[in-house]
Amino acid sequence: MGALYQTAKSELPLLVMVITPMINTVKPSQRMGQRIAMMQGNQPYKLASWQWFQPNFLFYAGRGDMPIHHLQHLAELPQILRKETVYLVCPATSVSRLSKKIPASHRLQTVMVRYEIYNHEEIALLRITPKPPLTQVVLGDLR
After folding, report:
1. For the chain, what percentages of helix, strand and coil (3-state, to nearest 5) are there?
2. Averaged pLDDT of the chain
């Protein structure tokens, strides 16, 4: 029995190294982080969460020691919306409620929705961007 225990104990790190990457591929965080990187490139952005968070989301979606804004109340949302794009993760069932809190000066886009294996629910990645300012057209310019 002792030899079996020692063998299992010595093989555990290898087993974790093989299985963990496979499990990560079915979590939404890795794909969401890849999509953010593809959409943003080197442009600045912020991260926020509402009613859902997994630490690996910050690992895949963040840059360096980037913070994430954990919203406790939807009333906090306008405070983090400035000139930068905000990527917000939340349960997909909350998107409708959350969309009503987006100020008219901003645009909301659902980037993706993925099933989250631990919470057993669909998680949405939302992109909130400031609308470009309206430009004035001088009637003389229309000739």
Report:
1. 45, 25, 30
2. 84
Closest CA to 57 of 73, 38, 35, 79: 35
Q: CA-CA distance, 129 to 88, in Å (whole number)?
A: 11
Q: SS3 letters for 38-57?
A: HHHCCCCEEEEEECCCCHHH
Phi, psi of 2 (to 5 degrees): -65, -40
Closest CA to 105 of 87, 73, 78: 78
Q: Is the dihedral of CA 88, 94, 95, 101 positive or negative?
A: negative
Model confidence at 54, in pLDDT bands (50, 70, 90)? confident
User: Phi/psi at 122 (nearest 5 deg)?
Assistant: -80, 135
- Look up residue 117 and give its DSSP letter: T
